[in-house]
Amino acid sequence: MHNAPANICPLCKGENTTPYFSDQFRDYLSCPTCALVFVPAMFHLSDEKEKQRYDLHDNDPADPRYRAFLSRLYNPLQARLRKGACGLDFGCGPGPTLSAMFRECGYVVDLYDKFYARNPRVFQRAYDFVTATEVVEHLRDPQFELQRLYRLVKPGGILGAMTKLATDCAAFENWHYKRDPTHICFFSRATFEWLGNLWRSKVEFIGADVILIYK
């Protein structure tokens, strides 16, 4: 993505992107094809600075509040899985917790995180479910990463994501979610619906920030 022209959409690679919003820190562009709002690569943090931000996260697997947060994805997803299903927690972070919740109920879960659990062997496997909680907004090349995750899902399986959804430009101006410098891609319902059409897959929205894509 860093070698691509700044105006190219990182999800659909469309070239007809337009200015969406600017603040004192960054510019934001919008894609009319897939509805993604994104930050041009020139404003992305280095890997070192990005990891420094993540190292500050206090994601304790024993924290009941953090588990309650993750349960927004965990509860509906596990209700749709067979017992003993095998999954991948992509972008698990420094304190893998969603995987622990699944394992406690008899599921088998592998981990991947580019900073904390770099295990490329997971991309040679197939899974009944793949989760990406608070991950897609960080992706530098969402087309590559999401296509790769979708390919890992077995037919009949589920790709589950959790991310805050963008609504409109008026709300975007004061949206806390864009203030995190590691957040560089902002998905909306229309963006996930575009992905569903691309993959010919059903997309289900649960609550304000949970998305299930059925392969």
Structure description:
The chain is α/β, with parallel strands linked by helices and 215 residues long. The protein has a single domain (18-214), classed as Rossmann fold (3-Layer(aba) Sandwich), CATH 3.40.50. The chain has six helices and ten strands. A hairpin with a 3-residue loop joins β9 and β10. The longest helix has 15 residues, at 64-78. It is globular and about 45 Å long. The mean pLDDT is 95.
Q: What is the total tally of β strands?
A: 10
CATH architectural group: 3-Layer(aba) Sandwich
**Distinct helical segment count:** 6
CATH topology: Rossmann fold
Largest beta sheet, briefly? 6 strands, mixed
CATH top level is Alpha Beta
Q: How far from one another are the termini? A: 27 Å
Strand order of the largest sheet: 5-4-6-7-10-9
What is the helix fraction of residues, given as a range? 25-40%
Oligomer: single chain
Structural class: alpha/beta
Overall 3D form: globular
Q: Domains counted in the coordinates: how many? A: 1
Quick check: average pLDDT? 95
Q: What radius of gyration results from the CA coordinates?
A: 17 Å
Give the H and E element order: EEEHHEHEEHEHEHEE
Low-confidence stretches: none
Share of β-strand residues: 15-25%
List the helices and strands and how they pair.
Blueprint lengths: L17 E5 L4 E4 L6 E2 L8 H9 L8 H15 L7 E5 L7 H7 L3 E5 L14 E7 L8 H11 E10 L6 H4 L12 E2 L2 H11 L2 E5 L3 E5 L1
Parallel strand pairs: 4-5, 4-6, 6-7
Antiparallel strand pairs: 1-2, 2-3, 3-8, 7-10, 9-10
